[in-house]
Amino acid sequence: MVDEMDLLSGLKAAKSVRPGAYEEAHDVLRAAIRIEQSMNAPKSGPRRRARWGRGRLVGFSAAGLAAAAVGVALVVTSTPSPAASTASAAGNPLLTRLAADITAKKVPLKGNATLEIRNRLANSAAVQTNGLDLYTDSGAYFWGNDKGELSQTVAEKETADGGETEQAIEAALIAAKDDIATARAKMSVANYPGGVVPKNSVSPSQAEIEKIKAADKAQGRPYTPPKPLTAEQKKEQTDNLIWMNSATALTAAPENPQVRAGVLKILATMPNVEVTHTTTAGQSTLTLTDSWPKLDPGYLESWVINASDGFPVAQSGYGGGSPSQTTYYHVSRVTLAQVAAGKF
Amino acid sequence: MTSDPDDSELIARSLDGNADAFVEVVRRHETAVGAYLARRAGREVAEDLLGEVWVAALASRASYDRSFPDARPWLFGVAHNTLRRHWRLRPAEDPVADMSSMAAGWDPWSAVDSRVDAATVLRQALRLLSTPQQEILTLVAWEDLTVADAGRALGLPPGTARRQLHEARTALRNAPGMATLLADQNTVKQ
Prior knowledge:
The complex is a heterodimer of chains A (about 350) and B (about 190). In chain A, about 40% of the residues lie in helices and about 15% in strands. Chain A has helices spanning about 5-10, 20-40, 60-75, 95-105, 145-155, 165-175, 180-185, 205-220, 230-250, 255-265, 335-340; strands at about 115-120, 130-135, 140-145, 275-280, 285-290, 300-305, 310-320, 320-325, 325-335. In chain A, strands 1, 2, 3, 4, 5, 6, 7, 8 and 9 form a 9-stranded antiparallel beta sheet that branches. Chain A has about 350 residues and is α+β, with helices and mostly antiparallel strands. Chain A is globular and about 75 Å long. Chain B is an all-alpha fold and about 190 residues long. Chain B has a domain at about 1-110: Rna Polymerase Sigma Factor, Chain: A (Orthogonal Bundle). Chain B contains 9 helices and no strands. Chain B has helices at about 5-15, 20-40, 45-60, 70-90, 115-125, 130-140, 145-155, 160-175, 180-190. The N and C termini of chain B lie far apart (about 50 Å). In chain B, about 45% of the residues are buried. Chains A and B meet through helix 1, helix 2, helix 3 and helix 8 of A and helix 1, helix 2, helix 3, helix 5 and helix 6 of B.
């Protein structure tokens, strides 16, 4: 006897979510966990939607934060060491030359904030699922799912992060003045509140160890202490954080030539970064690709920048042989008053 | 011999700082939640929203009722809320599969194939139901939840959920064309 529920069951077929999407969603989740831990607030979620909540992480630096999460799981036994890099001070000639060209150009800025729309469209700034990011010149960050929500958050001064964009920009500006060692050190911790590595990301507390022991005992497993990172992994972790935070600076203040130049000078010193000439959406571009084989084997991440001015154009991450979707960056200058009034 | 920890235990561990515990909860249910989203919004949107569902679940896990060992209904509830918010805030230029039922911000039928006659009749019948009736029907029929778990996903007490499902089934049976469709189906079966 067929009833109405049987008929309804017959309509449940739909195209399945692709396996790669599950992995991307894991990256988003792991990054959120990592950020939650770094904020030392494991029992309460963020009060408002953070920027990675709309996929920022996947299109931003999934491996970066995922690798940082690995660092926590494995217990980092020392703070990142920028001096551990083996890169030469001069660095990649393509990037250093572009940094010099950018520094020489004097282009006056309009407005007082940078509006950024991240989408999957190379030639259109249509708002898609990543919403809109707004970075003020004073370092504040706002996010909205659509223009109306962004206007509201700006009007209510509801910023969306803990100041890491400001710290990353500061590090880039130091690099622009050719103090690369100091800039790398600051960039490697720019994602942490106040630029200070949280205690719980360096080593677990005794209470946390006891919890792990109790959990293992409850499961009938012998207690296995978390393994510390190897020296190579620690070095990659540092490079990964520098890469990730440099991208934060580049996307937060792309209109500032000193920031672009500083970021390029830092990335020029990264040992695993490879730079190639490419063409993207009809413009001449440079594609920078980084990898962390000891921390995240098989994963690559690329940033595409304009070959003549260093503006961010696109970002991609590749893992396990399947390319992720590329995120394109569409950047414009606005004023906060315009945005608050919804006139943008 | 030990058994795997249930979802509520893993959520408790994640609140105690075990980063992998919550990921394990997600792994257990991601296929079901992904299918839930895909059936209601299509594969593309489902893939876009999946990460947001996990982050929302992570953020609200402190309020998880640990008397329930299975987190799937709760995750469906989080996905349900994420989907509603997505529809409510969707940019105007975003194409929509079917605008006719967007008023309430809820269109569970955009992924349904309407080319099949029986499906068309059923789909039209479903459109006559209220949004809560559609929601509870599909959670039971498509996601294989018990009526109590469907109620849990929607924030309804079990008694209310049972009443709503009963009313929904009655309304569906009594919708135009459904009596004939059911008669045809049962004639074929016999």
